[in-house]
Prior knowledge:
The chain is α+β, with helices and mostly antiparallel strands and about 375 residues long.
Amino acid sequence: MIVTLTLASAQFGPRMLRNFIRDRGTQLTLGTFVATFVYAVLTLVSVGPGSHGQFVPHISITVTLLLVVVDLAVLIFFIDHIAKSIQLPRVIASIARDLSNAIDAEVVAAARAVAVPERGPSATELSFRMAESGGVVRATKSGYVQFVRYDTLIAIAIAIAARRGAVIRLLHRPGHFVVQGHPLALVLPAEAAPEVARSLERAHATGSYRTLSQDLSFAIDQMVEIGIRAPSPAVNDTFTALTCVDWLGESLCRIAASWTPTTIHRDGDGRVRVLTVEISFVRLVERSFEKIRQASRGMPAVMIRELDALAKLMEYAATPDRRDVVVEQARMIERASAESVPEANDRADVSRRFAAVLAVAERRSSDAVEFAAGS
C-alpha cells in the first residue's frame, strides 16, 4: 500500500493522498486489520494459568481464526479496489464528484438566502467607511482559512449591533492563506473590533491545508494539478490532460448560467451585517484553463480539447462579461498555438476550433439582443 501511495503521489501530486486515505475501502481495510490484530493480542494475553489449570479461551481463539479468514477476504477486496482506484480516469472522476458536490453546496446556500427588504447603508457605502475608519481584526495564527460559519458571524454582528450597530467585513475566503498578525476582517464601528475578534475565533477554522468545504477552487486546483503534470516530460501522458480538460469544462458548464455566490449577509431587518469575499466565475475560468494552457504549449491535441470545452461553456454563459472571459481564454490558446506549434496543419486545426468558439459567442450575443428586444 505504501508503494502504491508513493507512486500515486508522484503521478497525481501529494495533495491526492488525502483522497486515498479518506476512501471508504481503504478505511475499511485498515480498520479490519487493526481490529483483528488488537483482538488477537488480547486473546493471547488471556492465555495462562488459572484456578483449574491452564486457561485457554477456545471461543476467542475460534473468533480470531474467523477474523483471519475475514481479513483474507478483505485483502483480496483491497487489492482489487486499490488497483481500480489509482487509475487516472477514476481519480479524475472522483475529484469531479467532489467539485460537483461543492457546486451543489454553494447553490443550495445561495438558494437558502431569504429575501428581505433592504434597509440602512448600502454595502458599497459601508465598505468605503470601513476602509476609512473601520477597526482591524488580525489573524491569531497562520494557515489556510478552511471554514467560515456565516450564521455565527451574523449572530455576533446582531448581538453587538444592539449596542453598537456592528458590521463585519471578511477580507479572506475559505482557501486563502492568512499570516499571523495580518488583517483578517474589518469592523464598523472600530470600537467593536476587540469584541468581534474574540467571537470570530468561534466562527472560522484555520489549518495547515485546504479543504473542499466552501472552497470550490480547491477541487479545480486539484484537477488542474493533474492536468499540468500530464504533459510534462516526466509523465508525458496527453490523454490524462484531455480527461482533466473534459471534466473541468463540464463543471464550469454547470455553474456558468447561475453562479451567484452570496457576498452580502443581512439580518432579519434587512440591514447589512456581514460582507464576505467569494470567488468569481471569471476567476474560476482562469484557474481552470490558464495553467493547463501554459503547460501544453506546442501540444495541439490539448489546445483543441480546451477550445472544444470553451465552445461548450459558451453555450451556458449567460452574461456578456462571462462570454468575454471565455473568448479571451480562446484567444490566448490560439496565440499560443501560433507561437509554439510548428506544423501548419495542426495550427489550422486549432484555428478552426477557435473560429467555432467565436461563432458560438456571436450566436449567443445575437440571441441575447433578440431576447432583450422581444421583452
